[in-house]
Amino acid sequence: MELYAILKLIWAALLCVLFIGLGLMVGMDMGVGTLLHFVGRNDGERRTALNIIGPHWDGNQVWFILGGGAIFAAFPTLYATSFSVFYVVMILLLFSMILRPVAFEYRSKADSKLWRASWDWVFLISGFLPMFIYGAAFGNILEGVGYHFGWNGQYYQDSSFFSYLLNPFVILCGLMSVSLSVYQGGVMLMIRSEDPIYSRARTYAQRGGILAIILFAVGGLFISRMKGFVLTAPVDPAMPANPLHGQEVAQIAGAWLHNYAAHPALWLLPVLGFASMVLGVLAVRAHNGGLAWWVGLGSWIGTIGTVGAAMFPFLMPSTTAPNQSLTIWNSTASAYGLSCMLVVALIFVPLILCYTSWCYYVMRGKVRTADIIHDSHSY
Questions:
Q1: CA distances from 80 to 71, 133, 155, 223, 378 (A)
Q2: Which of 56, 108, 283, 369 has CB atoms 3.0–4.6 Å from 288's, for a disulfide?
Q3: Strands 155-157 vs 227-231: parallel, antiparallel or unpaired
């Protein structure tokens, strides 16, 4: 296999890693924001929950930036097309993400119940909405998106906002992402809080995990019956980044299971996802927050890995012009660009993992409401 093709595969794998990191780390913070109004019954308890993620939430946003940056630099055609297709959704996502740091900074600036209650709802919206959109995006690309390219490479959108956001499978995927986020956020609160926040967080972590199990199973039934996409003729993995030529694609019912039929070992991914969710719920019930947190990583690996294995090599298939679907082979940057980025990734991704681990180690331990109430410098 040519070096260019190998680089494409490496960056496809790295993209999955970044998506997993985004779901786990950003999802955890978003989950705490979603639960804030429910685990905290008074201002002191809600401030405690915010201070649990306060030292980490902005650092965790690095995964969000890395994911977008990787798509922009490694898969520029995918970046341009997807951000155009999901333009309205991206505006909603950015708006909710902008509200989040504002809420952190301004919530405690005024000693007013109405003021702080309003920002608490902002935390819920800015926690729920991004994770819902994150999951819904995976649902959209599994179903295929209505777009095509003109003879000159110009992009044309063939589907509306409501057709690609509001349908049962996409909503299911969005809720699946939110449920894993709630689970991870609840577990984080279990690890670093005391009663009564601990007990409430434990309850919601269990509910989030159970809902994720149900939605994962139902989503599997959807995928097994929906029309997927498959290459009907061999392609050159080292082909240039041109979606107008070089591939023949058909849309066939059950096509997303073809890779699993050809490579049975891939079934380990959905098994990992399902088993991790079940073990996570059991760990929460057993009051083992540390194990539950790490098992949450397995849930994200299994979930995103299942989607990636089913879709390979597709990145964003087109329902109106299947032959123009974006794949790993036809939407990447140049070999030189991928090589330079790989060197940067090999340096900075381990560095990010190291400083993130160090931050969590330094800030370990319980956050107590009594201490937060008397600390004017906390959130």
A1: 9, 18, 9, 27, 41
A2: 283
A3: unpaired
The closest alpha carbon to 335, from 1, 81, 102, belongs to 1
Whole-structure pTM value: 0.91
Q: How far apart are the first and last CA of the chain?
A: 54
Task: Specify which residues 181 forms β-bridges with.
Answer: none
Q: Which segment of 3-12, 134-143, 166-175, 356-365 scores lowest on mean pLDDT?
A: 356-365
Residues 6+ apart with CB under 8 A from 60: 25, 26, 28, 29, 356
Half-sphere exposure of 194 (CA within 13 A, CB side): 9
CA-based torsion, 99, 104, 110, 111: positive or negative: positive
pLDDT tens, 99-131? 888 888 888 887 888 888 899 899 999 999 999
Structure tokens belonging to residue 108? 């405690």
